[in-house]
Design brief:
The strands form two sheets. Strands 2, 3, 4, 6 and 7 form a five-stranded parallel beta sheet that branches. A two-stranded parallel ribbon has the order 1-5. Helix 3 links the parallel strand 2 and strand 3. It is elongated. It has two domains: 57 residues; 200 residues, Glycoside hydrolase/deacetylase (TIM Barrel, Alpha-Beta Barrel). The chain contains ten helices and seven strands. The longest helix is centred in the N-terminal third of the chain and has 27 residues. The protein is an alpha/beta fold and 270 residues long. The protein is 50% helix and 10% strand.
Length: 270
C-alpha cells in the first residue's frame, strides 16, 4: 500500500473538482468542447502544481508530521541537549568519535544505516559497548517518499536486526533518510509505536560554515537552547571538518553548562 501516491492522487482529484466547481460561476460556461478541454487541462495543471508544492513542503518539514509521534526538540528548563549522528558507522573513524565524546562524558545518539552497520560491525559494537544510543536510519538510505508501507517496513526492520545483533537493548528511535517523509513512513512508524526524530540545529548542513570547525561550534553555541537536537555527520572522508568540530562543539556546550544526553533521555524530560 503506497499511501503517498494514494494521498497525492486523491488531492489532485479533489483540487480539480473544486477548481472546476468554481470556474463556471466565476468565468461562465465553456462555449465549445475545445474550451472545456482547455479548462480541464488548466485545472489539472494547477492541482498537480499545488499538490507537488504541498508534498515538497510536508516531506521536508522539521516540526510537522501528519501521523505518529515526531520530535525536533523539546521544551524544558533543564540544560540538556542531544548530539545526533547520521549515516555510517565506519570502522575507520569510530575511535576518534568515541574519544571526543568520552572526553566530555557525553552520550551520543547514532542513527545508523543498516547496510553500513552490517559492513562495519566493529564500529557498531564499539558504539554499543561505549553506552551510546543507537537509532535507525533505514537500511539503504533511500528516500522513503512515494514508497509502499511494505518498503518502509523492510528498510526499518532490516536495520533493527543489525542493531540488535550488536547487543543493543535500548529503544530504537527512527530518523528518515534526508529527513524526508510523507504518509507511508509515518503510518508504519505509528503502527509500530516508533518515534520520528528530526533536529533543530544542523551546523554541517549549512554550506557557509560546513568547512569551518570553529564556525560550526560557534553556530551551535549561539543557537542552542535547552532541549535542542543537533544533527552532525562524522563518518565519511569528506566530513573531516565535522570530526574536528565535534570536540569544539562539546567544549562550547560544556562551557555553557549543558549536559549532552541521548535522545531517549531528552524525551523522558517531556
Amino acid at each position: 500500500m503506497n499511501l503517498d501516491v494514494i494521498a497525492a492522487v486523491g488531492l489532485v482529484v479533489l483540487l480539480s473538482l473544486v477548481g472546476l466547481a468554481l470556474w463556471r460561476p466565476l468565468v461562465g460556461r465553456a462555449p465549445s468542447l475545445g474550451r472545456r478541454v482547455m479548462r480541464l487541462s488548466v485545472v489539472l495543471a494547477v492541482a498537480v502544481a499545488l499538490t507537488g508544492f504541498g508534498a515538497y513542503r510536508l516531506m521536508n518539514a522539521r516540526s510537522v508530521q501528519l501521523l505518529g509521534h515526531q520530535v525536533a526538540s523539546i521544551e524544558t528548563d533543564e540544560k540538556i541537549v542531544a548530539l545526533t549522528f547520521d549515516d555510517g558507522p565506519t570502522d575507520r573513524y569510530v575511535e576518534a568519535v568515541l574519544a571526543a565524546l568520552g572526553a566530555y562524558r557525553a552520550r551520543g545518539t547514532f542513527f545508523v544505516v543498516g547496510a553500513a552497520a552490517q559492513a562495519n560491525q566493529s564500529a557498531l559494537s564499539a558504539l554499543v559497548a561505549a553506552g551510546h544510543e543507537i537509532g535507525n536510519h533505514s537500511f539503504t538510505h533511500r528516500r522513503l517518499v512515494f514508497v509502499s508501507v511494505d518498503t518502509v517496513a523492510r528498510e526499518v526492520e532490516s536495520t533493527d536486526r543489525v542493531i540488535r545483533s550488536a547487543g543493543y537493548r535500548g529503544p530504537i528511535l527512527f530518523r528518515p533518510p534526508f529527513g524526508k517523509r510523507l504518509l507511508s513512513a509515518p503510518f508504519y512508524l505509528r503502527q509500530n509505536a516508533r518515534t520520528t526524530v528530526m533536529w533543530n540545529l544542523e551546523p554541517d548542513s549549512l554550506s557557509a560554515i560546513a568547512d569551518d570547525p570553529q564556525a560550526m561550534a560557534k553556530y551551535v553555541a549561539d543557537n542552542v537552547r535547552p532541549g535542542s537536537i543537533v544533527l552532525l555527520h562524522v563518518w565519511s572522508g569528506a566530513r573531516a571538518a565535522s570530526r574536528v568540530a565535534l570536540p569544539l562543539i562539546l567544549e562550547a556546550l560544556t562551557g555553557k553548562g549543558y549536559r549532552v544526553v541521548g535522545v531517549s533521555e531528552l524525551l523522558d524530560g517531556t
